[in-house]
Amino acid sequence: MKTSPLSLASALLLAAGCFNPAGSDPTTGTSGSDGPTTTGEPVTTLDSEGPATSVEPTSSGSTTGDEGTATAVTGDASTGVTTGEPCTLDVCPCDSQDDCEPGLQCLDGTCVECIDSADCDGQACDPVDHVCRPCREHADCPETACELDDGLCFPRDSTSNVYIDPQLTCADQPCTFDQPCCSISQAMSQHQDATHVVVHLNPGTYATGLHLAQGGRRVALLGNELVKITVEAEPAVHLGVAMQDLAIDSELYVSQIRIEGGQGSAAVRCKSSARLWLDDVEIVAYGGRAISASDCRVVVRRGQLALNLQAITVDEGTDLRLENTLVAHYNMGAALEVGNASAAHLLYTTLGDVTQHAVGLFACLDGTAIVNARNSALLSHGVDDTFACAATALDLADSVVSAATLENPDTNTAFVDPGTVHLLFNNWGGGDLHVAGNGGALAGAARWKQGDPRTDVDGEPRPTMDGAPDVAGGDRPPG
């Protein structure tokens, strides 16, 4: 069921005891998943492999087209019906791993490349095709986390897994699964020399966030639907050093947290750093800017921003990618502000502004800024000019806009009357940009392409045929 970004789970106060958001204790060998498991999400925001295709089996002894594979004939002799299962040429089918070529595993009578990710030397084992592929979600790496920019799991042998329970009194806890720390800062101070760190957040409300200021590190902050961070003054998520121009070569991956309330200059800040990934992150009713990035690469997937004092600003050579994200802007400035030498790339994103003041939707702060959007909805119910970017700075396609000057049939960019925009969503005025009904004017405006995300902001499946019509924006109707 779709939920408003303002519907805070009161169950936060009911969560007690120690909860493992990964669903596992690495010391026991059992495993689960971090956050919502979605299949087929791309490794990078706008470029990834498409859906897998299947090869129909051929008659006995024929090859499938890949060297070293063949089809074994099995079936019911009384009926004459046969079926084919691919396997290696020298053994068909297999009874044990010894029957398979070196490097292959025997699974259900068939030699496959992998059974789980432990067979894949840092990559993930596809649960359907049983081939090694780059990880696309943290759930693909149940023992650690996914370094999403290159598709490799954090190394199992050298990654520090630490656990936090905000309901505990601070003492000398070792931050293990059985004895979690009381705060994120306590855990990070104990593992400040570790190159790879995975921080697992137990349910509860956190008064402080995470600040990664050292270079050469890979850190994942993994929460769950019952994690809330409320901060004052300092950002809840901070990568880099605010007053430092020298970039640090560190990457921070944040998944499944809700930043609500509090105030400061920015809820999420990235400064002169390698990469910041925000997956399934909500920023709601923050008394400052939701996201601020300078000289950074920032990726937001399945994000929800609503009712913040200011929304998103990027400058100083920042590359921002918003995918399957809902941005409901209501207060100061534009919903998206792009500064010098920076670019914002929107894919399946809903950018909404209800301030009804000039330039409330998006703005290019100088002539070097770039905004491109595909399969997105850029909407305001204001009647004045809602954006300020030169025509040469914009590249829009397969999208819906509320500014008539942006309409372009050649790029399938359609216009919707600003007076009807509020009818397209569950609660435009309250910050819920999930679509109402079948999506109205948004339905059929997008065109899915190979490499696009296969689900929406809530995990609802998208059509996965090249050129298939889809709902523009970050949300599509269920079913």
Structure notes:
With 479 residues, the chain is mainly beta. It contains one helix and 41 strands. A ten-stranded parallel beta sheet has the order 9-10-13-17-20-23-26-29-32-35, with helices on one face. A ten-stranded parallel beta sheet has the order 11-14-18-21-24-27-30-33-36-37, with no helix packed on it. A hairpin with a 4-residue loop joins strand 38 (425-427) and strand 39. The model is unreliable at 1-86 (pLDDT under 50).
Percent helix, as a range, is under 10%
Query: For the residues shown, what is the average pLDDT?
Result: 83
Main-sheet strand order equals 9-10-13-17-20-23-26-29-32-35
Major sheet description: 10 strands, parallel
The count of DSSP E runs of length 2 or more, i.e. the number of strands, is 41
pLDDT < 50 runs, ≥5 residues: 1-86
Distance between the termini: 11 Å
Mind telling me the C-alpha Rg? 24 Å
- What portion of residues belong to β-strands? 35-45%
Helix count?
A: 1
Structural class: mainly beta
Overall morphology: globular
